[in-house]
Design goal:
about 425 residues; alpha+beta; 2-methylcitrate dehydratase PrpD; 60s Ribosomal Protein L30, Chain: A; 2 domains; four-stranded mixed β-sheet; about 5% strand
Length: about 425
Amino acid sequence: MNARDLVSNLLTIDGGDRKLRDLVTLHTVDALACLAAGAGATEGSSLLAFYRGTGAGDAVSSAASASTVIRFTEWDAIHVPSCATPDAMAVPAALIFAQDYEIYVKAVAAGHAVGIALSEAVGGVSALPETWPGLFAAPAVAAVSAAIALGLPDEQVAQALVLSMAGSSGRNGRPSGMPSARWLVIGEATLKGIRAALAAKAGIKGDLELLSPGWMKGQAAAAIALKTGHVDPLAITRVGMKPFVSARQGANAIQVFRHLLEKGVDPEAVDSIEVFLPPVASPVASRPLVAEDRLSTIAHLGLQLGIAAFEPARLMDVDRARPFSAEVMAFAKRVRITADTTLAGEGWPARVVVTEKGQVREGTWPQVCGEDAQAMLGRKIESLPATTAQQLQRLKAAFADADPTAVQEARNLLMKFTDASFPRSEAA
């Protein structure tokens, strides 16, 4: 399809709409909180150092490094059906260019709209593991967010989109080791997207027919033809925040178990736990545990429930560098994951059955009311060191008051959190 048609839906985004502004504020502060937390982790600080060493500290390199670290945390917001995580690219790309609050809101919302459309069209969760939808769409998120933040006309926004997607595939393999290319590719995709926007501004032309049905099908077997109607200007409303550092596949089960603990379950007396997850979510949550592998400790649901039981503060531990207690490791062995085809819904619902001294208790999540995003963000901010938390709370208030300096303040925090002078002890 023609990229002009794809971006035409973005014209309806109203950067002055109060509900949209509040939502963009929430996602902005959440992304910056993730950045501050990730900057204090061993791997996060190594990735930031790489970009500082190769980018001479310029704003574009800072945006790319911020994207890398926000995504690295596995604490950033996600659109579950498409596996898109557009905050990590949209917020930094828009922040470094936007000079106007309403333009910033529109830029972030537009980046989400295009990113989710592309991630869904390439197959979403069905495209995994060969194609990573979030990586596939990442250049487009950054390009569109940057182009709109720069105030480019629609024709150049369309050019930025196709310039960013040329050569993209979303295939990253399974990088191992630390620092990992799993995260580096996100920063590089953001860098490519921003440079595509700058190239479009300079008048460089791409192929506006690039995103054809045939091209999409070549990216993944599950891909479908991209249509104008796939671009939802309010797609950001469907992107949910993560309450913990976790694989999203298991987050609802952690919520269930925490709720049962609050209701009186004694972790010392638990005999066994069976967790029922949708078939699409169970493989990640049930991967074998490798205690020395950070991602394994984040994905392994048994370990995460053990952490919730005995070291709950470490559900917000991005680094995962310290070993977990013997109680946590032993508890992890009591958890069994079962794929349940009756669990439906795009939020990957979970049911947890706890056997405690022969008695059975169970719960499900999401509950009817779910969990308030503001409350989740509040806990995330509170988990950070006092100085950082205060800065983020001030930023949140500035956005809420429509302070014209809020975007500049957010940009300053992004630059601060990616700077070498931001100490690990302050972020960790």
